Amino acid sequence: MRLSAPICAFFILACERPADFSVSEAELSSSPYVTDVSNDQTAQNETPIAVNPVNPDNMITGNNDWNYNDGCGVNASFDGGKSWTKTYPFGFIPGITRYTDDPDVDGTGGYDYAGDPAVAFAPDGAAYFACFGYQGTPPYGVALLLSRSTDGGRTWTAGGPDAPLTLVSAFNGNGQAKGSTGQFPDHEAISIAPDGTIYVTWAQFNGLGSHSPIFVAVSTDGGRSFSAPQKVTSGSVRSDQDARIAVDPATGAAYLTFDNSIQGGKGTAMYVAASYDRGSSWTAPYQFATFQNPVCLYPPYCFNISGGQFRGPGSYPAPAIDPVRGRLVVAYTDIVGGRAQILLTSAPLSNVFAPWSKAGVVAPGAGDRINVEMSIEPGSGRYDLMANDRSWAANALFDVTYFGSSNGGASWSVQRVTKSSWDPSQYGVPSGSGFRPFIGDYDGIVSLPGSVGMAWTGPGKNYGPTNLEVYFGRVTP
User: Fold this and answer.
1) Distance CA 253, CA 208 (A)
2) How many Cβ atoms are within 10 Å of 295's Cβ, its own excluded?
3) How far is CA 102 from CA 36, 67, 68, 179, in A?
4) Mean pLDDT of 98-103
5) What does the alpha-carbon distance between residue 456 and residue 436 come to, in Å, rounded to a whole number?
6) How far is CA 129 from the centre of its chain?
């Protein structure tokens, strides 16, 4: 979620040059390798990733882009992640903001800033990007918009009156909206079923206290239109958040997971709801797990891991379908024994509304591990996880680590992905004349038969503490 309301102008702050995260030609054939995707002069964060089922060498990753555009950025690769389309001046989704990444070129949208990127590919190879557009002045309208690309992410829906983006849902500051009564929608996610059904889900902070429900909108015509947003949860206890949908490729059943803070804190419990009719109806949510001490990185309100404080991802459920074993699997982070660790739990797809498996710690680490993302390779059922990890630096600095399991989580291989460690409290996004340490609320991971692709936020080589970059890493499990 983006919290910066004003349009952020481009500027540079000098500081000590951090470690080089670039990738050499020799490293391109090794495992793991890392390359700088955005490769520009200011900040990007929140980095979902998707792979084209028609052409696995084609991938896209999104980001919150703090360039002049202050909107949703996008990069595409057509060689398996070795190289990516450029961030400046055309690496943004048109049709949302009034600005582009080029101060001399006007945007084709009507919003002052944008954020919360979500990406997906359809079975036919079409790419989709969901993003919120925000008005910075009354009536403070917010629109959830969907863009489409038919060339693998090189170009996107142009925007403007002749080629508008698809409206998923709209909100305004008076609490009136299509399908809800909200003032602040947040953290959407997009999933596309094997039959092409598009699911977009988000949390709706309604301005009536901390009782945010989860909404889902569905498209069955390739993203040209969406059903009226459906309120799946009541939000009657406390903030529902971090909603995601995983779809069973065999049956088309859609499983929605989210967390709820119940009586305080972030994400005290996790829930699942299901739809068996392409999103027309949803079951009542079922509580499948609770947190011991959910990770909270939201200074000054809460910060409960070690090190310098920064805004980043906390505890949330990351769901995936295991078609080989017929299970819905959820990875999450929790503080166990004083350190944030990754845990895994699952249930049979035949009944996700009964007690789930006892949560187990994934490859216990020597340092805090937060921001777990998970994908499952459908052919083999291999579990692929990534996390920001302090285990490689005496619980002091961050790296990205890959965790792989070929036996349903019974045992794990562990690989360090990043080349050098870094301190997330020393980098962030532009804020006035300085910076706000904010590395984003989520990363991205995709599984292929012989490799795993990951996208995350890390420090750039130059340009100071506001030079957070999008990085891509590829690992051979």
Assistant:
1) 33
2) 27
3) 21, 9, 7, 36
4) 88
5) 18
6) 12
> What number of other Cβ atoms are within 10 A of residue 6's Cβ?
12
The two tokens of residue 84 are 């990516």
Dump pLDDT digits (tens) for 186-241. Answer: 899 999 999 999 999 999 876 655 678 899 999 999 999 999 999 998 776 668 89
- DSSP per position, 376-438: EETTTTEEEEEEEE-TTTTTTSBEEEEEEESSTTSS-EEEE--SS-B-GGG--EEETTEEE-B
The residue type found at 218 is V
Average pLDDT, the chain: 89
Going from the C-alpha of 162 to that of each of 109, 157, 158, 159, 216, the distances in angstroms are: 12, 10, 8, 7, 27
The whole-number pLDDT of residue 14 equals 29
Q: Is 83 within 8 Å of 134 (Cβ atoms)?
A: no
pTM for the structure as a whole: 0.91
What is the tens place of the pLDDT at every residue in 386-429?
999 999 999 999 999 999 999 999 999 999 999 999 999 999 99
Say which amino acid occupies 468.
L
Inform me whether the pLDDT recorded for 12 exceeds 80: no
Alpha-carbon Rg for the chain in angstroms:
20
The count of residues in the chain is 477
**Percentage of the chain lying above the pLDDT 70 cut:** 88
> Nearest 5 degrees, angle CA 168-CA 148-CA 319?
65
DSSP state of 126: -
